[in-house]
Design a protein that fits this description.
Helices cover 77% and strands 0% of the residues. The chain is mostly helical and 522 residues long. It is globular, with a radius of gyration of 25 Å. GO terms for molecular function: transmembrane transporter activity.
Protein backbone atom coordinates (compact mmCIF):
# COMPACT_ATOMS: atom_id res chain seq x y z
CA UNK A 1 0.00 0.00 0.00
CA UNK A 2 2.80 2.38 0.95
CA UNK A 3 4.74 1.48 -2.18
CA UNK A 4 1.67 2.26 -4.30
CA UNK A 5 1.23 5.69 -2.73
CA UNK A 6 4.94 6.39 -3.10
CA UNK A 7 4.85 5.48 -6.81
CA UNK A 8 1.73 7.61 -7.31
CA UNK A 9 3.40 10.60 -5.64
CA UNK A 10 6.51 10.09 -7.78
CA UNK A 11 4.33 10.03 -10.91
CA UNK A 12 2.55 13.22 -9.85
CA UNK A 13 5.88 15.03 -9.40
CA UNK A 14 7.01 13.85 -12.83
CA UNK A 15 3.80 15.06 -14.45
CA UNK A 16 4.16 18.50 -12.88
CA UNK A 17 7.81 18.73 -14.02
CA UNK A 18 6.55 18.15 -17.56
CA UNK A 19 4.61 21.44 -17.42
CA UNK A 20 7.62 23.63 -16.58
CA UNK A 21 9.31 23.98 -20.02
CA UNK A 22 6.00 24.84 -21.72
CA UNK A 23 5.24 27.52 -19.13
CA UNK A 24 8.67 29.03 -19.82
CA UNK A 25 8.84 28.64 -23.60
CA UNK A 26 8.52 32.37 -24.28
CA UNK A 27 10.94 33.27 -21.49
CA UNK A 28 13.79 32.03 -23.65
CA UNK A 29 14.46 35.48 -25.11
CA UNK A 30 13.89 37.56 -21.99
CA UNK A 31 17.31 36.87 -20.55
CA UNK A 32 19.13 39.63 -22.41
CA UNK A 33 17.00 41.50 -24.92
CA UNK A 34 19.83 43.95 -25.67
CA UNK A 35 21.87 41.12 -27.23
CA UNK A 36 19.00 40.09 -29.49
CA UNK A 37 18.29 43.71 -30.41
CA UNK A 38 21.95 44.19 -31.34
CA UNK A 39 22.07 40.88 -33.23
CA UNK A 40 19.22 41.79 -35.58
CA UNK A 41 19.78 45.55 -35.58
CA UNK A 42 16.05 46.26 -35.44
CA UNK A 43 14.50 49.54 -34.32
CA UNK A 44 13.04 49.81 -30.84
CA UNK A 45 9.46 49.82 -32.15
CA UNK A 46 10.03 46.76 -34.34
CA UNK A 47 11.67 44.95 -31.44
CA UNK A 48 8.71 45.82 -29.21
CA UNK A 49 6.45 44.14 -31.76
CA UNK A 50 8.74 41.09 -31.77
CA UNK A 51 8.24 40.77 -28.01
CA UNK A 52 4.48 41.34 -28.01
CA UNK A 53 3.44 39.33 -31.08
CA UNK A 54 4.31 35.84 -29.72
CA UNK A 55 2.43 36.63 -26.50
CA UNK A 56 -0.68 37.76 -28.38
CA UNK A 57 -0.44 34.77 -30.72
CA UNK A 58 -0.24 32.39 -27.77
CA UNK A 59 -3.25 33.99 -26.06
CA UNK A 60 -5.24 34.06 -29.29
CA UNK A 61 -4.51 30.40 -30.00
CA UNK A 62 -5.47 29.26 -26.51
CA UNK A 63 -9.21 28.64 -27.15
CA UNK A 64 -8.49 26.64 -30.33
CA UNK A 65 -5.59 24.83 -28.66
CA UNK A 66 -7.82 23.65 -25.85
CA UNK A 67 -10.39 22.33 -28.33
CA UNK A 68 -7.77 20.56 -30.46
CA UNK A 69 -6.13 19.15 -27.35
CA UNK A 70 -9.25 17.15 -26.52
CA UNK A 71 -9.19 15.41 -29.90
CA UNK A 72 -5.56 14.20 -29.74
CA UNK A 73 -4.22 11.30 -27.72
CA UNK A 74 -2.36 12.63 -24.69
CA UNK A 75 0.95 10.80 -25.16
CA UNK A 76 1.01 11.66 -28.86
CA UNK A 77 0.19 15.25 -28.02
CA UNK A 78 2.95 15.73 -25.41
CA UNK A 79 5.58 14.04 -27.59
CA UNK A 80 4.54 16.05 -30.65
CA UNK A 81 4.51 19.30 -28.67
CA UNK A 82 7.98 18.59 -27.28
CA UNK A 83 9.41 17.68 -30.69
CA UNK A 84 7.83 20.71 -32.42
CA UNK A 85 9.06 22.98 -29.62
CA UNK A 86 12.62 21.80 -30.25
CA UNK A 87 12.14 22.29 -33.99
CA UNK A 88 10.68 25.83 -33.76
CA UNK A 89 13.07 26.83 -30.99
CA UNK A 90 16.09 25.70 -32.99
CA UNK A 91 14.79 27.40 -36.15
CA UNK A 92 14.90 30.75 -34.34
CA UNK A 93 18.68 30.30 -34.02
CA UNK A 94 19.02 30.47 -37.81
CA UNK A 95 16.58 33.33 -38.38
CA UNK A 96 18.23 35.98 -40.57
CA UNK A 97 15.78 38.75 -39.64
CA UNK A 98 13.72 39.88 -36.67
CA UNK A 99 10.55 38.98 -38.62
CA UNK A 100 11.52 35.32 -38.98
CA UNK A 101 12.72 35.23 -35.39
CA UNK A 102 9.29 36.49 -34.29
CA UNK A 103 7.56 33.94 -36.56
CA UNK A 104 9.34 30.97 -35.00
CA UNK A 105 8.79 32.33 -31.50
CA UNK A 106 5.09 32.67 -32.24
CA UNK A 107 4.90 29.03 -33.33
CA UNK A 108 6.69 28.09 -30.11
CA UNK A 109 4.04 30.00 -28.16
CA UNK A 110 1.26 28.10 -29.96
CA UNK A 111 2.85 24.74 -29.23
CA UNK A 112 3.38 25.77 -25.61
CA UNK A 113 -0.41 26.04 -25.16
CA UNK A 114 -0.85 22.47 -26.41
CA UNK A 115 2.03 21.29 -24.20
CA UNK A 116 0.51 22.87 -21.09
CA UNK A 117 -2.85 21.26 -21.80
CA UNK A 118 -1.30 17.86 -22.59
CA UNK A 119 0.77 17.83 -19.41
CA UNK A 120 -2.16 18.94 -17.23
CA UNK A 121 -4.76 16.43 -18.47
CA UNK A 122 -3.44 13.40 -16.50
CA UNK A 123 -3.16 15.50 -13.33
CA UNK A 124 -6.73 16.74 -13.68
CA UNK A 125 -8.22 13.34 -14.55
CA UNK A 126 -6.19 11.10 -12.25
CA UNK A 127 -5.51 13.28 -9.21
CA UNK A 128 -8.17 15.98 -9.25
CA UNK A 129 -10.93 13.74 -7.80
CA UNK A 130 -8.76 13.21 -4.73
CA UNK A 131 -7.39 16.75 -4.71
CA UNK A 132 -8.84 19.73 -2.99
CA UNK A 133 -8.97 22.35 -5.77
CA UNK A 134 -6.95 24.75 -3.63
CA UNK A 135 -4.09 22.23 -3.64
CA UNK A 136 -4.23 21.84 -7.41
CA UNK A 137 -4.21 25.60 -8.05
CA UNK A 138 -1.60 26.22 -5.36
CA UNK A 139 0.84 23.66 -6.74
CA UNK A 140 0.36 24.95 -10.28
CA UNK A 141 0.99 28.55 -9.28
CA UNK A 142 3.99 27.51 -7.19
CA UNK A 143 5.56 25.77 -10.18
CA UNK A 144 4.58 28.40 -12.73
CA UNK A 145 5.66 31.52 -10.81
CA UNK A 146 8.71 29.92 -9.21
CA UNK A 147 10.11 28.41 -12.40
CA UNK A 148 9.64 31.69 -14.29
CA UNK A 149 12.07 33.63 -12.10
CA UNK A 150 14.44 30.69 -11.71
CA UNK A 151 14.64 30.24 -15.49
CA UNK A 152 15.25 33.95 -15.98
CA UNK A 153 18.07 33.89 -13.43
CA UNK A 154 19.75 30.82 -14.97
CA UNK A 155 19.29 32.23 -18.45
CA UNK A 156 20.72 35.63 -17.56
CA UNK A 157 23.70 34.07 -15.78
CA UNK A 158 24.71 31.71 -18.57
CA UNK A 159 23.84 34.18 -21.33
CA UNK A 160 26.40 36.58 -19.84
CA UNK A 161 29.04 33.82 -20.11
CA UNK A 162 28.05 32.71 -23.62
CA UNK A 163 25.40 34.73 -25.51
CA UNK A 164 21.63 34.90 -26.07
CA UNK A 165 21.66 31.58 -27.93
CA UNK A 166 22.25 29.77 -24.64
CA UNK A 167 18.60 30.23 -23.72
CA UNK A 168 17.54 28.30 -26.82
CA UNK A 169 19.98 25.45 -26.13
CA UNK A 170 18.86 25.40 -22.50
CA UNK A 171 15.18 25.14 -23.43
CA UNK A 172 15.86 22.40 -25.99
CA UNK A 173 17.44 20.29 -23.26
CA UNK A 174 14.29 20.82 -21.20
CA UNK A 175 12.09 19.59 -24.05
CA UNK A 176 14.30 16.53 -24.51
CA UNK A 177 13.72 15.75 -20.83
CA UNK A 178 9.97 16.17 -21.49
CA UNK A 179 10.18 13.50 -24.21
CA UNK A 180 11.96 11.10 -21.85
CA UNK A 181 9.47 11.72 -19.02
CA UNK A 182 6.51 11.34 -21.39
CA UNK A 183 7.75 7.94 -22.57
CA UNK A 184 8.12 6.88 -18.95
CA UNK A 185 4.94 8.26 -17.32
CA UNK A 186 2.37 8.11 -20.14
CA UNK A 187 1.63 4.39 -20.20
CA UNK A 188 -1.59 4.60 -22.22
CA UNK A 189 -1.98 6.70 -25.35
CA UNK A 190 -5.61 7.79 -25.25
CA UNK A 191 -7.75 10.91 -25.63
CA UNK A 192 -9.90 10.71 -22.47
CA UNK A 193 -11.46 14.16 -22.94
CA UNK A 194 -12.36 13.70 -26.61
CA UNK A 195 -15.72 15.16 -27.61
CA UNK A 196 -17.45 16.15 -30.82
CA UNK A 197 -15.33 18.92 -32.31
CA UNK A 198 -17.19 22.20 -32.47
CA UNK A 199 -15.45 25.57 -32.54
CA UNK A 200 -16.52 29.20 -32.83
CA UNK A 201 -14.44 30.12 -35.88
CA UNK A 202 -16.20 33.44 -36.49
CA UNK A 203 -15.83 34.51 -32.86
CA UNK A 204 -12.17 33.45 -32.96
CA UNK A 205 -11.53 35.67 -35.98
CA UNK A 206 -13.17 38.63 -34.21
CA UNK A 207 -11.01 37.98 -31.15
CA UNK A 208 -7.84 37.88 -33.28
CA UNK A 209 -8.75 41.23 -34.86
CA UNK A 210 -9.44 42.59 -31.36
CA UNK A 211 -6.00 41.44 -30.19
CA UNK A 212 -4.32 42.96 -33.26
CA UNK A 213 -5.73 46.38 -32.42
CA UNK A 214 -4.59 46.09 -28.78
CA UNK A 215 -1.17 44.97 -30.03
CA UNK A 216 -0.92 48.17 -32.09
CA UNK A 217 -1.98 50.32 -29.13
CA UNK A 218 0.46 48.58 -26.76
CA UNK A 219 3.43 48.81 -29.12
CA UNK A 220 2.91 52.30 -30.52
CA UNK A 221 0.52 54.15 -28.22
CA UNK A 222 3.25 55.82 -26.18
CA UNK A 223 5.48 56.70 -29.15
CA UNK A 224 2.48 58.22 -30.97
CA UNK A 225 1.41 60.15 -27.86
CA UNK A 226 -1.89 58.30 -27.69
CA UNK A 227 -4.99 60.25 -28.71
CA UNK A 228 -2.95 63.10 -30.18
CA UNK A 229 -2.38 60.72 -33.09
CA UNK A 230 -5.39 60.08 -35.40
CA UNK A 231 -4.38 56.42 -35.92
CA UNK A 232 -4.65 55.78 -32.17
CA UNK A 233 -8.12 57.33 -32.11
CA UNK A 234 -9.12 55.23 -35.12
CA UNK A 235 -7.76 52.05 -33.48
CA UNK A 236 -9.70 52.80 -30.28
CA UNK A 237 -12.89 53.28 -32.29
CA UNK A 238 -12.28 49.99 -34.13
CA UNK A 239 -11.80 48.30 -30.76
CA UNK A 240 -15.25 49.41 -29.61
CA UNK A 241 -16.80 48.36 -32.94
CA UNK A 242 -15.23 44.90 -32.71
CA UNK A 243 -16.53 44.54 -29.16
CA UNK A 244 -20.03 45.38 -30.36
CA UNK A 245 -19.75 42.94 -33.28
CA UNK A 246 -18.66 40.16 -30.93
CA UNK A 247 -21.58 40.80 -28.56
CA UNK A 248 -23.95 40.64 -31.55
CA UNK A 249 -22.19 37.49 -32.78
CA UNK A 250 -22.77 35.66 -29.46
CA UNK A 251 -26.54 36.02 -29.90
CA UNK A 252 -26.37 33.77 -32.99
CA UNK A 253 -23.80 31.25 -31.72
CA UNK A 254 -24.52 28.27 -29.49
CA UNK A 255 -21.00 27.87 -28.06
CA UNK A 256 -19.03 31.16 -28.31
CA UNK A 257 -15.46 31.43 -27.04
CA UNK A 258 -16.57 33.89 -24.35
CA UNK A 259 -20.20 33.18 -23.58
CA UNK A 260 -22.01 36.21 -22.06
CA UNK A 261 -23.89 33.72 -19.84
CA UNK A 262 -20.73 33.42 -17.76
CA UNK A 263 -21.30 36.98 -16.48
CA UNK A 264 -24.53 35.91 -14.84
CA UNK A 265 -22.23 34.61 -12.10
CA UNK A 266 -21.37 37.52 -9.84
CA UNK A 267 -17.99 36.08 -8.92
CA UNK A 268 -16.94 36.07 -12.60
CA UNK A 269 -17.76 39.78 -13.00
CA UNK A 270 -16.03 40.72 -9.74
CA UNK A 271 -13.23 38.23 -10.34
CA UNK A 272 -12.52 39.63 -13.81
CA UNK A 273 -12.20 43.11 -12.34
CA UNK A 274 -9.95 41.79 -9.57
CA UNK A 275 -7.74 40.05 -12.15
CA UNK A 276 -7.45 43.39 -13.96
CA UNK A 277 -6.72 45.18 -10.67
CA UNK A 278 -4.02 42.67 -9.74
CA UNK A 279 -2.49 43.03 -13.21
CA UNK A 280 -2.29 46.80 -12.70
CA UNK A 281 -0.57 46.67 -9.30
CA UNK A 282 1.73 43.88 -10.48
CA UNK A 283 2.64 45.79 -13.65
CA UNK A 284 4.74 48.39 -11.82
CA UNK A 285 7.47 45.76 -11.75
CA UNK A 286 8.34 46.85 -15.29
CA UNK A 287 9.06 50.31 -13.87
CA UNK A 288 11.59 48.85 -11.42
CA UNK A 289 13.20 46.71 -14.12
CA UNK A 290 13.46 49.71 -16.45
CA UNK A 291 14.97 51.83 -13.69
CA UNK A 292 17.55 49.15 -12.87
CA UNK A 293 18.61 48.85 -16.51
CA UNK A 294 18.25 52.37 -17.93
CA UNK A 295 19.14 54.57 -14.94
CA UNK A 296 21.25 52.50 -12.56
CA UNK A 297 22.97 50.59 -15.35
CA UNK A 298 22.39 47.11 -13.90
CA UNK A 299 23.25 44.31 -16.30
CA UNK A 300 20.83 41.42 -16.92
CA UNK A 301 22.57 39.17 -14.37
CA UNK A 302 22.34 41.73 -11.57
CA UNK A 303 18.69 42.39 -12.36
CA UNK A 304 17.88 38.67 -12.39
CA UNK A 305 19.73 38.11 -9.11
CA UNK A 306 17.80 40.93 -7.50
CA UNK A 307 14.48 39.48 -8.67
CA UNK A 308 15.31 36.13 -7.05
CA UNK A 309 14.00 37.83 -3.92
CA UNK A 310 10.56 37.25 -5.41
CA UNK A 311 11.12 33.52 -4.97
CA UNK A 312 11.52 33.95 -1.21
CA UNK A 313 8.11 35.58 -1.01
CA UNK A 314 6.52 33.02 -3.34
CA UNK A 315 7.96 30.06 -1.44
CA UNK A 316 6.35 31.41 1.74
CA UNK A 317 3.02 32.77 0.50
CA UNK A 318 1.84 30.16 -2.01
CA UNK A 319 2.04 27.20 0.41
CA UNK A 320 0.51 29.37 3.14
CA UNK A 321 -2.29 30.56 0.84
CA UNK A 322 -2.94 26.97 -0.27
CA UNK A 323 -3.09 25.83 3.36
CA UNK A 324 -5.51 28.62 4.31
CA UNK A 325 -7.79 27.81 1.38
CA UNK A 326 -7.63 24.10 2.21
CA UNK A 327 -8.59 24.89 5.82
CA UNK A 328 -11.49 27.02 4.53
CA UNK A 329 -10.22 30.31 5.89
CA UNK A 330 -12.30 33.37 4.98
CA UNK A 331 -11.52 34.77 1.54
CA UNK A 332 -11.34 38.28 3.02
CA UNK A 333 -8.35 37.27 5.14
CA UNK A 334 -6.34 36.13 2.10
CA UNK A 335 -7.33 39.17 0.02
CA UNK A 336 -6.24 41.51 2.81
CA UNK A 337 -2.89 39.73 3.24
CA UNK A 338 -2.21 39.88 -0.50
CA UNK A 339 -3.13 43.53 -1.04
CA UNK A 340 -1.25 44.53 2.13
CA UNK A 341 1.94 42.86 0.85
CA UNK A 342 1.64 44.67 -2.47
CA UNK A 343 1.02 47.90 -0.57
CA UNK A 344 4.18 47.45 1.52
CA UNK A 345 6.11 46.66 -1.68
CA UNK A 346 5.15 50.03 -3.16
CA UNK A 347 5.58 51.97 0.10
CA UNK A 348 9.08 50.63 0.74
CA UNK A 349 10.20 51.44 -2.79
CA UNK A 350 8.73 54.93 -2.44
CA UNK A 351 11.09 55.59 0.48
CA UNK A 352 14.05 53.89 -1.22
CA UNK A 353 14.05 55.84 -4.49
CA UNK A 354 16.92 58.16 -3.58
CA UNK A 355 20.39 58.96 -5.00
CA UNK A 356 22.74 56.08 -4.30
CA UNK A 357 20.07 53.34 -4.38
CA UNK A 358 21.76 49.95 -4.82
CA UNK A 359 20.87 46.30 -5.40
CA UNK A 360 20.36 45.53 -1.70
CA UNK A 361 17.65 48.20 -1.51
CA UNK A 362 15.41 46.14 -3.83
CA UNK A 363 15.49 42.82 -1.96
CA UNK A 364 13.03 43.57 0.85
CA UNK A 365 10.34 45.22 -1.34
CA UNK A 366 10.61 42.41 -3.91
CA UNK A 367 10.13 39.84 -1.14
CA UNK A 368 6.89 41.63 -0.25
CA UNK A 369 5.90 41.60 -3.92
CA UNK A 370 6.50 37.84 -4.03
CA UNK A 371 4.34 37.46 -0.93
CA UNK A 372 1.57 39.48 -2.59
CA UNK A 373 1.74 37.41 -5.77
CA UNK A 374 1.57 34.17 -3.81
CA UNK A 375 -1.54 35.26 -1.92
CA UNK A 376 -3.49 36.99 -4.70
CA UNK A 377 -2.92 34.86 -7.80
CA UNK A 378 -4.15 31.46 -6.51
CA UNK A 379 -7.17 32.90 -4.69
CA UNK A 380 -8.17 35.08 -7.67
CA UNK A 381 -8.01 32.11 -10.07
CA UNK A 382 -10.11 30.03 -7.70
CA UNK A 383 -12.61 32.79 -6.95
CA UNK A 384 -13.32 33.52 -10.62
CA UNK A 385 -13.92 29.77 -11.13
CA UNK A 386 -16.26 29.36 -8.16
CA UNK A 387 -19.63 27.73 -9.02
CA UNK A 388 -18.99 28.13 -12.77
CA UNK A 389 -20.09 24.99 -14.69
CA UNK A 390 -17.46 23.21 -16.83
CA UNK A 391 -19.12 24.27 -20.11
CA UNK A 392 -18.35 27.92 -19.25
CA UNK A 393 -14.83 27.33 -17.92
CA UNK A 394 -13.15 28.51 -21.14
CA UNK A 395 -15.26 31.69 -21.01
CA UNK A 396 -14.26 32.57 -17.46
CA UNK A 397 -10.63 31.61 -18.18
CA UNK A 398 -10.41 33.86 -21.25
CA UNK A 399 -12.17 36.69 -19.35
CA UNK A 400 -9.52 36.57 -16.62
CA UNK A 401 -6.61 36.27 -19.05
CA UNK A 402 -7.77 39.16 -21.25
CA UNK A 403 -8.40 41.35 -18.20
CA UNK A 404 -5.07 40.63 -16.51
CA UNK A 405 -2.60 39.84 -19.29
CA UNK A 406 -3.93 41.90 -22.20
CA UNK A 407 -5.59 45.00 -20.74
CA UNK A 408 -3.66 45.33 -17.46
CA UNK A 409 -0.35 43.65 -18.30
CA UNK A 410 0.40 44.73 -21.88
CA UNK A 411 -1.80 47.75 -22.59
CA UNK A 412 -1.59 48.91 -18.95
CA UNK A 413 2.22 48.83 -19.02
CA UNK A 414 2.26 51.05 -22.09
CA UNK A 415 -0.08 53.56 -20.41
CA UNK A 416 2.01 53.44 -17.22
CA UNK A 417 5.15 54.15 -19.24
CA UNK A 418 3.47 57.26 -20.64
CA UNK A 419 2.61 58.48 -17.15
CA UNK A 420 6.19 57.93 -15.98
CA UNK A 421 7.57 59.82 -18.99
CA UNK A 422 5.14 62.70 -18.40
CA UNK A 423 6.01 62.97 -14.72
CA UNK A 424 9.71 62.78 -15.55
CA UNK A 425 9.42 65.70 -17.99
CA UNK A 426 7.50 67.79 -15.44
CA UNK A 427 10.06 67.19 -12.70
CA UNK A 428 12.97 67.79 -15.07
CA UNK A 429 11.51 71.12 -16.15
CA UNK A 430 10.97 72.09 -12.52
CA UNK A 431 14.55 71.23 -11.60
CA UNK A 432 16.19 72.91 -14.59
CA UNK A 433 14.23 76.11 -13.97
CA UNK A 434 16.19 76.43 -10.74
CA UNK A 435 19.51 76.61 -12.62
CA UNK A 436 19.70 80.39 -12.51
CA UNK A 437 22.20 82.92 -11.23
CA UNK A 438 20.18 83.14 -8.00
CA UNK A 439 20.74 79.45 -7.21
CA UNK A 440 24.22 79.59 -5.67
CA UNK A 441 24.51 75.81 -5.15
CA UNK A 442 23.89 75.17 -8.83
CA UNK A 443 26.35 77.86 -9.86
CA UNK A 444 29.01 76.38 -7.53
CA UNK A 445 28.56 72.93 -9.11
CA UNK A 446 28.81 74.39 -12.61
CA UNK A 447 31.91 76.38 -11.66
CA UNK A 448 33.59 73.31 -10.11
CA UNK A 449 32.81 71.13 -13.13
CA UNK A 450 34.00 73.91 -15.46
CA UNK A 451 37.38 74.06 -13.70
CA UNK A 452 37.78 70.30 -14.18
CA UNK A 453 37.08 70.54 -17.88
CA UNK A 454 39.42 73.53 -18.27
CA UNK A 455 42.10 71.51 -16.51
CA UNK A 456 41.60 68.78 -19.16
CA UNK A 457 42.47 71.32 -21.85
CA UNK A 458 39.04 72.39 -23.09
CA UNK A 459 38.30 75.91 -24.24
CA UNK A 460 36.26 78.33 -22.12
CA UNK A 461 33.11 77.79 -24.19
CA UNK A 462 33.50 74.01 -24.30
CA UNK A 463 34.13 73.79 -20.54
CA UNK A 464 31.03 75.90 -19.81
CA UNK A 465 28.89 73.75 -22.11
CA UNK A 466 30.14 70.46 -20.64
CA UNK A 467 29.70 71.73 -17.07
CA UNK A 468 26.07 72.69 -17.74
CA UNK A 469 25.48 69.34 -19.48
CA UNK A 470 26.91 67.48 -16.48
CA UNK A 471 24.52 69.23 -14.13
CA UNK A 472 21.64 68.57 -16.52
CA UNK A 473 22.43 64.84 -16.50
CA UNK A 474 22.36 64.85 -12.70
CA UNK A 475 19.02 66.63 -12.78
CA UNK A 476 17.67 64.00 -15.20
CA UNK A 477 18.34 61.20 -12.72
CA UNK A 478 16.84 63.26 -9.89
CA UNK A 479 13.74 63.89 -12.02
CA UNK A 480 13.40 60.16 -12.75
CA UNK A 481 13.64 59.38 -9.04
CA UNK A 482 10.88 61.87 -8.27
CA UNK A 483 8.70 60.46 -11.06
CA UNK A 484 9.05 56.92 -9.70
CA UNK A 485 8.37 58.12 -6.17
CA UNK A 486 5.12 59.70 -7.39
CA UNK A 487 4.04 56.50 -9.16
CA UNK A 488 4.79 54.27 -6.18
CA UNK A 489 3.08 56.60 -3.72
CA UNK A 490 -0.09 56.49 -5.82
CA UNK A 491 0.17 52.73 -6.30
CA UNK A 492 0.58 52.14 -2.57
CA UNK A 493 -2.76 53.91 -2.05
CA UNK A 494 -4.27 51.82 -4.88
CA UNK A 495 -3.09 48.63 -3.12
CA UNK A 496 -4.44 49.54 0.32
CA UNK A 497 -7.77 50.82 -1.03
CA UNK A 498 -9.31 47.32 -1.53
CA UNK A 499 -8.49 46.49 2.10
CA UNK A 500 -10.51 49.49 3.21
CA UNK A 501 -13.44 48.41 1.01
CA UNK A 502 -13.30 44.81 2.29
CA UNK A 503 -13.29 45.91 5.91
CA UNK A 504 -15.83 48.69 5.48
CA UNK A 505 -18.44 46.59 3.66
CA UNK A 506 -17.55 43.29 5.42
CA UNK A 507 -16.96 41.46 2.13
CA UNK A 508 -16.00 37.79 1.57
CA UNK A 509 -16.48 36.68 5.16
CA UNK A 510 -16.81 33.11 3.97
CA UNK A 511 -14.59 30.28 2.74
CA UNK A 512 -14.20 29.28 -0.88
CA UNK A 513 -17.19 27.51 -2.43
CA UNK A 514 -17.37 24.69 -4.97
CA UNK A 515 -14.87 24.89 -7.85
CA UNK A 516 -14.84 22.70 -10.94
CA UNK A 517 -12.11 23.06 -13.51
CA UNK A 518 -12.16 22.16 -17.17
CA UNK A 519 -9.95 22.04 -19.09
CA UNK A 520 -6.96 23.56 -17.20
CA UNK A 521 -6.71 25.70 -14.05
CA UNK A 522 -4.88 28.70 -15.54
Amino acid sequence: MFAGKKASFFTLIGLYILTIPFFNGLNVTTYDNSQILGHFGASTTVFTYSIYIPIFVMLAFMPLGLKLGKQIKVKTMILSASFLSILFNTASLYANSIEWFTFWRSLLGIVSVIGIFASMVPIILKYNPGFNMALLYGILQFIQKGSQHLYQYLGAHFTSIYDWKFGIYFLNINFLICIILAWYFYKVDAAPMKTKFQFDWRGWLIMILFFMVILFLSAEGQSRNWFNDPKISLASAILLILFGIYVLHTRFTTDPIIDPDVYRYKNVVIGTFIMFYIGIINGTGSVVTGYMTNVLGFDSVTGAETHLALLIGLFVSIPLCTYLLFKRTYLATIWIMGFACYGFYHVILFFRFYPGIDTVDFFLPLIFKGLGMGFLFPVSLLYISEKVPPRLSTSRMMSGIIAQAVFAGLLGSAVLGTFVSGLNIQHKMGITQQFSAVNQDAQKQIAGAKRNFLYKGMSEAQAQKMAEKSLTNKSAQAAMLLAYKDIYLVMSAVCFFPILIILLFKLWRRPLGRVETEPIPI
